[in-house]
Design goal:
This protein is α+β, with helices and mostly antiparallel strands. Helix content is 35%, strand content 19%. It has a four-stranded antiparallel sheet with strand order 3-4-5-6. A hairpin with a 5-residue loop joins strand 4 and strand 5.
C-alpha cells in the first residue's frame, strides 16, 4: 500500500486506537486463507497484519481482531455466513464489511474489485478497483455506504 495511505490510517489509529483490532501474525492470516480456500490480496493482508480490523474514514473494515469501540466481527465468519445466502457465483466472496441494510461489502476472489451485493435489488455495485482504493475513498468519505 502507498505510504501516504498507511500514514493516514496510522493517524486515525493514533487518535482512536480502540477503533482498531490490533496486529495479527502471518500464521493467523494464512489460517484464514485456508479456512476460506482463497488467496487474499496483498493490500488486504497488509491491513490485517498491521491493524487487525478497524474504522478507516467512513468504512468499518472487518478483520481478525475485534476492535473495542467498533463492531468488527471476524471477516472469516462473515464470509462463510454470506456465502450460504449469496447467489451462485459468489462461492469465494470475502466480506470486509456489512452495510447498515445488511448487505455484504467485499470482493469475489480471485477478483479484487470491492463490491457491495445489494439483496434488495439483487445485484452488485462496484465501489473500488482494489482494497487500497477502497480505503483511500473511505478516508475521503467517497464510498457512500452507511455502516
Amino acid at each position: 500500500m502507498k505510504i501516504e495511505l498507511l500514514n493516514a490510517i496510522d493517524e486515525e489509529l493514533e487518535m482512536c486506537p480502540e477503533a482498531f483490532g490490533g496486529t495479527v501474525n502471518i500464521e493467523e492470516v494464512m489460517q484464514a486463507e485456508v479456512e476460506l480456500k482463497v488467496k487474499l490480496p496483498e493490500d488486504f493482508k497488509m491491513f490485517l497484519l498491521k491493524y487487525g480490523s478497524g474504522a478507516v474514514g467512513e468504512a468499518i473494515v472487518l478483520g481478525l481482531r475485534e476492535a473495542e469501540f467498533v463492531a468488527t466481527p471476524s471477516f472469516v465468519e462473515k464470509s462463510l455466513q454470506f456465502r450460504n445466502i449469496l447467489p451462485e457465483g459468489y462461492e469465494n466472496f470475502i466480506v470486509i464489511g456489512v452495510d447498515s441494510a445488511g448487505n455484504p461489502v467485499g470482493f469475489n476472489s480471485p477478483n479484487t474489485e470491492i463490491i457491495t451485493f445489494d439483496f434488495d435489488f439483487g445485484g452488485k455495485e462496484i465501489i473500488a478497483s482494489s482494497f487500497e482504493e477502497y480505503l483511500e475513498k473511505a478516508l475521503k468519505e467517497e464510498i457512500n455506504i452507511h455502516f
